[in-house]
């Protein structure tokens, strides 16, 4: 029944002279998402985006794909009347109401627009005429201009669009409108959610994973690749940098107080991620940290980790409770993968009693015990990064 979808977008409509580039980005993202499921055409005209459908397609599949596109706040399934003759429009509208609202007992209002002001019937007149036709055809309906149950829209262009329902969508901003950031992606629950949330603001993502073979297995690495792939269904392809972190960890373990190990390791992760970030044109780092969740995420620990970074570090989950994060992770489809029980490089060398209130000067003092060898190890890690394109 539906031959098109009208795309509603919120915030981007108010971006003044950036509006054009925002709309273009949104169209590109929509095209990428629907390309795999049929011959859809994305049309941008007069401040609207319309997705035109091929003769045959799967409605649920299209909606599910469009719901992954950030920047869309609502999707209106549209019935198209190829003609702009008033009698044809009326017939199509009545058929539409009959199919869409079984029982035809509702309050309604009609709004109409004509793209071409030369169209012989003015908009208020179109509304009145259609209102009357509906009342005549379906005697149990009633007009309610203020709070209608059904709000029927008629848009006359070179053909006529008819719609009344808006399906909710993801919201946010189209990817590619905000810049690029480096996500520190582990195999846990939090970082994929953090990536999703920051991407929802229009940020393009690249990712880095710290791998510690043989302490962490290939299966643990595959899990991170799988997570990046799930996140990429929302963000578009993600380049995943896999850093071999083993020798750095072992060296820190050998030289530094064990209760400070996690913090010092985290500082090296951030440093390395930042080098990779800058190399790829990323202008921020993203982590899944949340205040107080574990010893390495107290405010004091975050202060110590943050101190090595020069790029801004975005932590979208900083004030979230675990359950809220789990809820989002379930919604976006990463949860089942995240809870697969594979080892994590942070937990392998973890001390029995890690510091929870580290003092930056004391951490920095401990790090002086690491000779130039640490720089060589960092360089080697950077030189041997394995890159996986996740899509
Ligand atoms: P997550 O659920 O994302 O693993 P977490 O609760 O396990 O988080 P930590 O292990 O303290 O918390 O890690 C905090 C953040 O540091 C993670 O959210 C992630 O952004 C980053 N991180 C931790 N371990 C790794 C890793 N092996 N590779 C890449 N990033 C990591
Ligand atoms: Mg983790």
CATH class wording of the largest domain: Alpha Beta
> Structural class, judged by helices and strands?
alpha/beta
What is the CATH T-level topology of the largest domain? Answer: Rossmann fold
CATH architecture of the largest domain: 3-Layer(aba) Sandwich
In DSSP terms (H or I, runs of 4 or more residues), the helix count works out at 14
- Helical amount: 40-55%
CATH superfamily of the largest domain: HUPs
Strand content: 15-25%
Strands, total number: 15
Envelope shape: elongated
What is the first-to-last residue Cα distance?
32 Å
- Largest β sheet strand count, sense and barrel closure: 9 strands, mixed
Give the topology, please.
Elements: E1 4-8, H1 19-35, E2 41-45, E3 48-52, H2 59-66, E4 74-81, H3 86-100, E5 107-114, H4 123-137, E6 142-143, E7 150-156, E8 160-163, E9 167-168, E10 179-184, H5 190-199, E11 203-211, H6 218-235, E12 238-244, H7 246-255, H8 261-279, E13 285-286, H9 299-306, E14 313-314, H10 322-332, H11 335-338, H12 345-348, H13 360-367, H14 373-383, E15 386-390
Parallel strand pairs: 5-6, 5-7, 10-11, 10-13, 11-12, 13-14
Antiparallel strand pairs: 1-3, 1-4, 2-3, 4-8, 4-9, 7-8, 12-15
Helix pairs in contact: 3-4, 5-6, 5-10, 7-8, 7-14, 8-9
